[in-house]
TrEMBL record:
It comes from the Bacteria. It comes from Romboutsia weinsteinii. One of its GO terms (molecular function) is 3'-5' DNA helicase activity. PROSITE patterns: HELICASE_ATP_BIND_1, HELICASE_CTER. GO terms for biological process: DNA recombination; DNA repair. InterPro entries: ATP-dep_DNA_helicase_RecG, DEAD/DEAH_box_helicase_dom, Helicase_ATP-bd, Helicase_C-like, NA-bd_OB-fold, P-loop_NTPase, RecG/Mfd, RecG_dom3_C. Residues 272-433 form the Helicase ATP-binding domain. Pfam families: DEAD (PF00270), Helicase_C (PF00271), RecG_dom3_C (PF19833), RecG_wedge (PF17191). Keywords: ATP-binding, DNA damage, DNA recombination, DNA repair, DNA-binding, Helicase, Hydrolase, Isomerase, Nucleotide-binding. This is ATP-dependent DNA helicase RecG. Signal peptide: none annotated. It catalyses: ATP + H2O = ADP + phosphate + H(+); Couples ATP hydrolysis with the unwinding of duplex DNA by translocating in the 3'-5' direction. Its EC number is 5.6.2.4.
Length: 686
C-alpha cells in the first residue's frame, strides 16, 4: 500500500521539478494532492453550434478541420490557426507559440473543441483551446471537466494528468475516517469514491454524490472543530414554555394559511421555546416570504404563557407597520401591544415604559429605543429582532439582558457577513423560509441605461398608474450625508412633477423628515392617496404596500446587490405582476455584471452569494487567517441546507462524546485536529 503522507516529489511520474511547482500550490504530500479539489466544472456535454457562439463565451463545439496554417508575425512568436466548420458556420482555433500542435490536426477529422470565444462581427476565433479527437476518443467518458485553482507555472491539463495517474494506481487506498454510523445515516459515499469522482467523474450523478459527501464532511468538521476549540456548547437554562391550545385560534384567525415553509419554521421555533435551553434561532427568508407572521405567532405563544415579548425593528416605519399588523390580529385575543419609538413625546414614552414595567403591556414593538437602559420588563420571555443585519450583536444581547435568559429569534432577508460569522461560529440555529406565499408572480427586473430613463417614466409609470397601481421611485444613494441625499430627493420630486407627472400625485419620503411627516406620507401611500412615492433608502427594509407594482431605482450602480434586492422586494407583494426598473449610469463591466444578476434572479440567497463572488472572497472567506480550515467545495450560501444538517449532527455528536474520544470518532477527530492545526496551535499558545 502507498503511504498517503509520502512527499510528492517521490511519487511516480512527478519528480523534483514538478514537485517544486506543486509546492507553490500548497501541495506537499500525496494526500495534499488528492485532496486538491477542482474549483468548478465545465460541462462539455452541452455542445454549441458555431452560429450560436457569443463573444466571451466558454463553449464546446463539434467541428470538422478544414485547414491549418502557422504564421510568424515577429521573431520569437508564432501563431497557429486551425480552420474548422460545422453545418452552421466557420471558426478559427488560435494557438500561440505552440507550433507542435500543427501536426495533430488533419483536414477532414472531426474534433471537439473547448475554448474561449472571440467574436468580432462574423469573424469567430477560439483561444485557450482544448481539443479532443473524436475518432480516438473512448466512448462514454463523462465530459464534465474539472477546473483547478491554479497559480503560475502549472496548467489545468498538467494537474489533471498528474492526479489521474496517481488515482489510477491500484495500490492507493484512501482510508475512511467518517464514523460508520454517519455514513449510513446520511447515505454518504466512501471517501475513496468521493475523491475519485471529484477529480474524474464517471457520470454527473457520481459527481453529485461525491460532492455531497465532501460538502457534508467539510461542514461537519468545521462545526465539530468550532465546538471543540472555540465555543463549547453553552447550555444555559432558559424558559420552558408550555403548549397552549389558544395558539391554534390565533393561527385560525389569520386571513391566510401558512405556507409549508412558514409552518416548518414556526414548528422549529415552538419546539425551541418548549425546550429547556435558551432559543438562539435565525430565521432566514427571502423578502416577502412572510417572516412577520411567524414572529407574530411566536410572540403570541410567549404571551399565552404569561410572558412579555419584544420585537425590535431597524426603522420607525417598519416598527409602526409591525405594530399595526400585530395589534390587528392580537387585540381580539386580549393581548396588549405597544409601540416605543424615539419620536414619541416624553410623556407618552414614560407612560408606555411604566406600563411595560407593570406588565400591562404584553408585546413591545420598537426601534433601538427598546434597548435604552430605562426600558424595563416585568417578565420578558422572547426577544425578536427583525432585519437582523441592521443591528450589531451587542445591541441584540443588550435587549435580551432585559430578561432572565429569554428566548431569542432573529430574522433576516439578507445573509450578510455578520450572519455568516454567526453561522460559522455555530451559536445560532437556522430556520429557512424558502417558499413565497401562493399567487405571487415573480418580479420582472429590467436594467436600462440612463438614456432610456425618459421611456421608463413616460410609458411604464403611466401604464401602472392608469391600472390603479402605485409606483416607488428610489433616488440615488448619496454616501456623504443624509442631508445631501434628502436634498437630492427633493430635487428629484421637483423634476418629476415638472417634466413628467404634473397630473399625478407624487409623495416624498426621506430620512431628514420628522417621524410624524414620514408616517403621514407612508399612510397616504398605503391608502392610495398617492400614485408615486419618491424615496431615499428609508423604504429599503420591510415596508409592505401590496398595491405597489413598479419600483424604479435611479443610479442603481451605487447600491449593493443585497440592497437592490431589498428595495425590489417592496413590490411583488400582492397578486399583480410587478416590475423593477434599474436605471444605471455606468458602463463598467462590474456594473453590467451586477445588473444582469439582478435581472436573472429573484433569489436573495443567490444574490448575496454572487455579491460576495464579485466583490471577491474578502475577509470572511479568508478563513485561514481565523484559524479555520478552508472550505474547498462547501459554500455557506449555496449549501445552507447541508450546513444545517451538519450543524445538527455536530451538536448531537458533541452531546454524546464531548471530546470525541470514543473509538468510533477516533479517525474523524484526527482529521479535525489536522485541519484545525493552526487553531489548535493558537489556543495552546494562549
Ligand atoms: P417579509 O418576510 O419580507 O418580512 P412579510 O412578513 O412582510 O414578508 O410578508 C409579506 C406579505 O405576505 C404580507 O402582506 C403578508 O401579509 C403576506 N403573507 C405572509 N404569509 C402569507 C401566506 N402564508 N399566505 C398569503 N400571504 C401571506
Ligand atoms: Mg419583514
Amino acid at each position: 500500500m502507498i503511504d498517503i503522507n509520502k512527499d510528492i516529489q517521490y511519487v511516480k511520474g512527478i519528480g523534483p521539478k514538478k514537485a517544486y511547482k506543486l509546492n507553490k500550490l500548497g501541495i506537499f504530500t500525496l494526500k495534499d494532492l488528492i485532496f486538491y479539489f477542482p474549483r468548478q466544472y465545465e460541462d462539455r456535454n452541452n455542445l454549441k453550434k458555431i452560429i450560436q457562439l457569443e463573444n466571451e463565451d466558454k463553449a464546446t463545439i463539434k467541428a470538422v478541420i478544414v485547414g491549418v496554417e502557422t504564421t510568424s508575425p515577429r521573431k520569437g512568436m508564432n501563431i497557429t490557426k486551425v480552420d474548422v466548420r460545422d453545418e452552421t458556420g466557420y471558426a478559427k482555433l488560435v494557438f500561440f507559440n505552440q507550433e507542435y500542435v500543427k501536426n495533430t490536426f488533419r483536414s477532414g477529422d472531426t474534433i471537439l473543441v473547448f475554448g474561449k470565444v472571440k467574436k468580432n462581427y462574423k469573424n469567430i476565433e477560439m483561444t485557450s483551446c482544448e481539443v479532443e479527437h473524436l475518432t480516438n476518443a473512448p466512448k462514454n467518458t463523462c465530459k464534465v471537466m474539472p477546473i483547478y485553482p491554479l497559480t503560475y507555472g502549472v496548467t489545468n491539463k498538467e494537474i489533471i494528468s498528474i492526479i489521474k495517474s496517481v488515482l489510477s494506481n491500484e495500490e492507493l487506498k484512501i482510508k475512511e475516517y467518517m464514523p460508520q454510523r454517519i455514513v449510513e445515516k446520511y447515505k454518504l459515499c466512501s471517501i475513496e469514491y468521493a475523491v475519485k469522482n471529484i477529480h474524474n467523474p464517471s457520470s454527473k450523478d457520481a459527481l453529485k454524490i461525491a460532492l455531497y459527501r465532501i460538502v457534508f464532511e467539510e461542514f461537519l468538521i468545521l462545526q465539530l472543530g468550532l465546538f471543540m476549540f472555540k465555543n463549547g456548547i453553552t447550555e444555559s437554562d432558559g424558559i420552558k414554555f408550555k403548549e397552549n391550545e389558544k395558539l391554534k385560534d390565533v393561527l385560525g384567525s389569520l386571513p391566510f394559511k401558512l405556507t409549508n415553509a412558514q409552518n416548518r419554521a414556526l414548528n422549529e421555533i415552538i419546539d425551541d421555546m418548549q425546550n429547556n435551553k435558551v432559543m438562539n434561532r435565525l430565521v432566514q427568508g427571502d423578502v416577502g416570504s412572510g417572516k412577520t407572521v411567524v414572529a407574530l405567532l411566536a410572540l403570541a405563544d410567549c404571551v399565552l404563557n404569561g410572558y412579555q415579548g419584544a420585537l425590535m425593528a431597524p426603522t420607525e416605519i417598519l416598527a409602526e407597520q409591525h405594530y399595526i399588523s400585530l395589534t390587528d390580529t392580537l387585540k381580539d385575543f386580549g393581548m396588549r401591544v405597544e409601540l416605543l419609538v424615539g419620536s414619541l413625546t416624553k410623556k407618552k414614552k414614560e407612560a408606555v415604559l411604566e406600563r411595560v414595567k407593570n406588565h400591562e403591556v404584553d408585546i413591545l414593538i420598537g426601534t433601538h429605543a427598546l434597548i435604552e437602559d430605562k426600558v424595563e420588563f416585568d417578565k420578558l420571555g422572547l426577544v425578536i429582532t427583525d432585519e437582523q443585519h441592521r443591528f450589531g450583536v451587542r445591541q441584540r444581547s443588550k435587549l435580551s439582558e432585559k430578561g432572565n435568559n429569554p428566548d431569542i429569534l432573529v430574522m433576516t432577508a439578507t445573509p450578510i457577513p455578520r450572519t455568516l460569522a454567526l453561522i460559522l461560529y455555530g451559536d445560532l440555529d437556522i430556520s429557512i423560509i424558502d417558499e413565497l406565499p401562493p399567487g405571487r408572480q415573480p418580479i420582472e427586473t429590467i436594467a436600462v441605461d440612463k438614456s432610456k430613463r425618459d421611456r421608463a417614466y413616460n410609458s411604464l409609470v403611466r401604464k401602472e398608474v392608469e391600472q390603479g397601481r402605485q409606483v416607488y421611485i428610489v433616488c440615488p444613494l448619496v454616501e456623504e450625508s443624509e442631508a445631501i441625499e434628502a436634498k437630492a430627493a427633493v430635487d428629484l420630486v421637483e423634476e418629476l412633477k415638472l417634466e413628467y407627472f404634473s397630473d399625478l400625485r407624487v409623495g416624498l419620503l426621506h430620512g431628514k423628515m420628522k417621524a410624524s411627516e414620514k408616517d403621514a406620507v407612508m399612510k397616504s401611500f398605503k391608502n392610495k392617496e398617492l400614485d408615486i412615492l419618491v424615496s431615499t433608502t428609508v423604504i429599503e427594509v420591510g415596508v409592505n404596500v401590496p398595491n405597489a407594482t413598479l419600483m424604479i431605482i435611479e443610479n442603481a450602480e451605487r447600491f449593493g446587490l443585497a440592497q437592490l434586492h431589498q428595495l425590489r422586494g417592496r413590490v411583488g407583494r400582492g397578486s399583480h405582476k410587478s416590475y423593477c426598473i434599474l436605471i444605471y449610469a455606468s458602463k463598467s463591466e462590474v456594473c453590467r455584471q451586477r445588473m444582469s444578476i439582478m435581472e436573472e434572479t429573484n433569489d436573495g440567497f443567490k444574490i448575496s452569494e454572487k455579491d460576495l463572488e464579485i466583490r471577491g472572497p474578502g475577509e470572511f472567506f479568508g478563513t485561514r487567517q481565523h484559524g479555520l480550515p478552508e472550505l474547498k467545495i462547501a459554500n455557506i450560501f449555496k449549501h445552507m441546507k447541508i450546513l444545517k444538517i451538519a450543524q445538527q449532527e455536530a451538536r448531537y455528536i458533541m452531546g454524546e462524546d464531548h471530546n470525541l474520544n470514543g473509538f468510533e470518532n477516533k479517525l474523524l477527530k484526527k482529521e479535525i485536529l489536522d485541519k484545525f492545526e493552526y487553531a489548535v496551535r493558537e489556543i495552546s499558545l494562549n
